[in-house]
Amino acid sequence: MKEKTRRPTLFLALIPVIFLTILISINVFIFGDDSLSGSNQIVLILSASVAAIIALSLGFSWSFLLKGIVKGIGSAMTAILILLLIGSLAGTWLIGGIVPAMIYYGLQILNPTIFLFAACVVSAVVSLATGSSWSTVATLGVALLGIGRALGIPDGVIGGAIISGAYFGDKMSPLSDTTNLAPAMAGTDLFTHIRYMAYTTVPSITITLIIFLVIGFRSYSGNVYNDITPVLNAIDNTFTINPFLFLVPALVIFLIVRKVPALPALFIGTLAGAASALIFQPQIIEQISGVDKPFHTAAYIAIMKSMYTSVSVTTSNEMVNNLLETGGMRGMLNTVWLIMCAMIFGGIMESSGMLHRITESVIKLAHNTGSLIASTAGTCIFFNITASDQYLSIVVPGRMFADTYRERGLKPENLSRTLEDSGTVTSVLVPWNTCGATQASVLGVSTLTFLPYCFFNIISPFMTIIFAYFNIRIARIKKEK
């Protein structure tokens, strides 16, 4: 028997979103960085409860809403599996010396005469290797800030160069949680998302680097190499660094180009990282295992630990120590938890028609592809400002617009790219957002001070809108005969 339900009004549909926005803002104010450790997840559950109460009052049954929740979680299951596998890959790439090698060679790009340009490039390389803008800014970024200050460069400009590079790497790295979250919300796969995102991201970072190059040539003097020598020595004395280590990421890139599905490609990359540890880094295996047993036993323990739990490598340099640590699969559980809670909220909002009601009002303003993508970008930025969390700026708009993109004949990678171009990168520009607050605290530079110089973060949403209005690289669904 068909349920007798009423269509939600726009006011009723907005109540759970407003409730979510207010509680997330309170969370950020009270918990700060720790809001991602559980309190935001609880807020999503509470907001889902509010949405459920409204849905029940409209005549929807709990069993129907529960089916919507299960469907939502099911749609994110591939992303959850990929996230867990990425945790294990990051661990084996650390003990295999692959991530340290990327950092080691990346640091040597630094040149006193082009410091801003080099700082942006190095931050991008390290963030691309680690998949985390936060750890890049908190470790390498702090070191680069000290070097820049010694050269007499204003803090805001240095901060802008570091953050621009770090968020480029975070956005393009398959190890990044947001890079996995966006395609999961849009309904596409990880590597298709990354390939398609490159069309707008490469021009954005190119313009950014040109700007920093122009600024840098007018600002520098002094010697940078003396400042990074201790870092290079610490990595070189701890790991066996050589160009052969790059065969592992090259293998993964080859698999991506050959369009191998994400799960097997990442699993192969994980095993290759473990093999690299066995061949090149026996000393690291002994350090991580922490046992006085035969090498084959120590290797088994170290590799298993690197895959499932937190591991860190100790060097002679404290800054390097902070950079060379990973959480394994366990380190991804907070993000997995957040995704599942977001899917509970999104499942109820979607199955009850409230999400469609909100989207319908926004879509009325979008008469073509350009205005649709512009509306999506604006919604992402709105949630970064109001909900103060970059994950929600991806999750909520992703659920809101997914059906509309399909109805308009647009492939889901258009949506996933827009979510990252406008959601991920603008989060750091909002002082009360978790990202903006964290980076300001870590660097000791206020958000409004570095904001004008975060050229990559500012350019990215405009780039995706320009591509849309000029119909550049807009993937469309081919209609079957």
Task: Please give a structural write-up.
- There is one protein chain.
- The protein is mainly alpha-helical and 481 residues long.
- Helices cover 73% and strands 1% of the residues.
- The chain has helices spanning 10-31, 39-57, 62-75, 77-95, 98-107, 115-130, 133-150, 155-172, 177-186, 190-217, 225-238, 247-257, 262-280, 282-289, 295-308, 318-323, 333-351, 354-363, 369-386, 390-407, 412-424, 434-443, 447-450, 455-469; strands spanning 311-312, 325-326.
- Strands 1-2 form a two-stranded antiparallel ribbon.
- The longest helix has 28 residues, at 190-217.
- The model has no long low-confidence stretch (mean pLDDT 86).
